Amino acid sequence: MVRPHFRTDVAPQPKRHSCGNSATNLLVIAACCLAGLSVCALLAIPWGGLVTANCHWDCWWYLDISRDGYPSLPHPAGTAGPGQAAWAFFPLYPALIHLTNRLFGLPPQSAGLLVNILLCPLLIFLCQRDAEWRGQPVNRALFALFFVLFPFTIWYTAQYSEALYGVVLMATLLALRRHHILPAAMGCALLALTRPTGFAMSVCLAGWWLVAHRDERRSTVMAESLLLIAAGGAGLSLFVLYLAHLTGDGFAFLHVQTAWARHLQFFVLPILQAFKKMSNLPGGLCAIATIGLLVWMWRRRWRLAAWLVGMTALMAASTSVVSLERYVFGNPLTIEFLACITLTRSPPIRALILTAMGLFHILTTLGWYSHNPSLM
Amino acid sequence: MFRTLLIVTLLSFDAFALWRGLHPHVSDTYRDYYIAHTIDLPTFLAREKADLAKNPAVPTSH
Predict the structure, then answer these.
(1) Residue A320: which pLDDT band, with cuts at 50, 70 and 90?
(2) Which of A146, A306, A359, A365 could join A339 via S-S bond, C-beta 3.0 to 4.6 A?
(3) Crossing angle (nearest 10°) for helices A108-133 and A332-342
(4) What does the domain layout of chain B look like in residue ranges?
(5) Radius of gyration of chain A (CA)
(6) Taking the model in full, what pTM does it have?
(7) Contacts for A40 with CB less than 8 Å, ≥ 6 apart
(8) Span A29-75, pLDDT tens digits
């Protein structure tokens, strides 16, 4: 059933916002983020504070890159993760950590956290704008609160590249919705430099652009789509050429996945395998929840979001279901969709959902601080 | 015109990077483990160590 208040992804709705309005909105968002961060800081005390508690798994890779750059050789025998190398981690986030470290003289671990603390309000702001573009009546304060309370936003304030990826993705999407092709192409290039799925997102966005504007002049739309792909490709190409220069293998970022025992396979197989082992069960359940979410998004006519989140999930699940919850439920488009659904409910149900989410957020935060492998 | 020129330039750059990526200059050990998947991790590590001992000045990935 199509709800009248949900717009399709095709028709743009230009909306003007005054500077003062936006500034007040940003202040409200920043206040919500600050409140959430204060609670996290209190919870982090037993683990040595916010900076230390948040930094594990991929965080160390990003910090190594920001400090020493990429290595030319993988980890040797006798070290942690032999055969593994930082090539799997894309350069934009560590570059920002390095820049923040140089500008403010902060240690890399704190610089990484600061980058994300600053990006998080911007991401919520961009998601709000996207929801408003869809004609969705959004209570801005509640929307920001939803984002802060959502249990799978823990990576937005950890030293991970999720916040940067989310900001670039939403900015690119908004630029496209407003027909700003060149900034969108720039966004595609940055996306490809942020995460391995970035280039694929550029291709998905180009495909959507082609379909969404099929009634317009064919050659123009084709050229615009091609520009998005070429720009995304250029971002990835920069990294490929750098790796080729450094290691001799331009696709080292892909090949090094072998050291994590990740091999490309039909996406159903890793999901089925997850149900055979108790420790992988959360990943398997998350895959099932992902399918449900995608069907729900599609039926609610959030087709672009379903397309982008679906392709991300497909790529992730084609090697392993580990971290699927981060790729799918930590995706800003998923959070925006769930926020829009929740905030149209009656006030008592809304309050109940927000309270339950707040409690679950505390649990996921504690799970993250105590290195729970289900939240990698 | 500008847009066409931009697309052609970017696509040429992409094609060059793709060609460079498809033609890696790596050691046999690296190729066997990371690309061809014909050896396992312990074999890779042992061969890397042996390669490095033979010629310590040259990184074995190249």
Answers:
(1) confident
(2) A146
(3) 50
(4) 25-62
(5) 20
(6) 0.92
(7) A50, A157, A365
(8) 999 999 999 999 999 999 999 999 999 889 999 999 999 999 999 99
Q: Angle at CA A167, nearest 5°, toward A166 and A170? A: 80
d(CA A163, CA A180): 23
Q: Count the residues in chain B.
A: 62
Contact A247 B18 (CB under 8 A): no
pLDDT confidence bin for A235, thresholds 50/70/90:
very high
- In this predicted complex, what is the ipTM? 0.90
Whole-angstrom CA distances from B61 to A71, A89, A247, A259, B55 are: 11, 18, 6, 15, 12
Q: Report pLDDT for A236.
A: 98
- Compute the average pLDDT of residues B44-61: 75
Q: Which amino acid is at A72?
A: S
Tokens of A181: 């092709």
Which residues are CB-contacts of A94 (< 8 A; sequence separation ≥ 6)?
A: A62, A63, A65, A66
Across chain A, what does the average pLDDT equal? 92
Alpha helical stretches, state H, A213-280: 218-247, 252-255, 268-274
Q: Is A26 on the interface with B (CB under 8 A)?
A: no
Packing angle of the helix pair A92-104, A181-194 (nearest 10 deg): 90
The letter for the amino acid at A32 is C
Q: Which of B5, B10, B26 to mutate to test the interface with A (most CBs of A within 10 A)?
A: B10
Q: Which two tokens stand for residue A127?
A: 């998601």
